[in-house]
Amino acid sequence: MKLDRDLNKDGCGKYAIINLRKLNDLCGHAGPFQRWTPEVAQAIKTLEEAGALEWGRTGAPDEFFLIKLKDKYAKHALEQYAAAVGSDDPEYSDAVFDLSKRSGKNSPFYKVPD
Questions:
Q1: Rounded to whole angstroms, how far apart are CA atoms 25 and 34?
Q2: How many CB atoms lie within 10 A of CB 100?
């Protein structure tokens, strides 16, 4: 298996990220009973109706834990993941290991997670 971004001509992967903290800061003026402005709320509704938005809520089938390559601890996590998947899919394992080489302190965007 290959990473989606290696298969797609535009280089995009399987997922995109919406930074909810930034969205909340941007839309703080939406009103006392609205989390986001009507335009943002409509965009999110459109994505949800298309089945393209996964919230990753605890216990949900789409629960997730996101690790960015710039995360201080990403290198170790990705190396361990690559090693674990290696016996099932060496090609995928190699792709994840390549990601690990650009992660953690090797990332130009290195930072402690917040």
A1: 13
A2: 20
CA–CA separation, 84 and 39 (whole Å): 43
State pLDDT tens for residues 50-93: 999 999 999 999 999 999 999 999 999 999 999 999 999 999 99
One-letter amino acid identity for 76? H
Structure tokens at 76: 């170790």
Please tell me the pTM assigned to this model. Answer: 0.80
* Closest C-alpha to 102, from 82, 74, 81: 74
CA distances from 20 to 11, 31, 43 (A): 24, 17, 13
In single-letter form, the type of residue at position 91 comes to E
- Beta bridge partners, 111, equal 71
Instruction: Give the phi and the psi of residue 71 in degrees, each rounded to 5.
Output: -60, 135
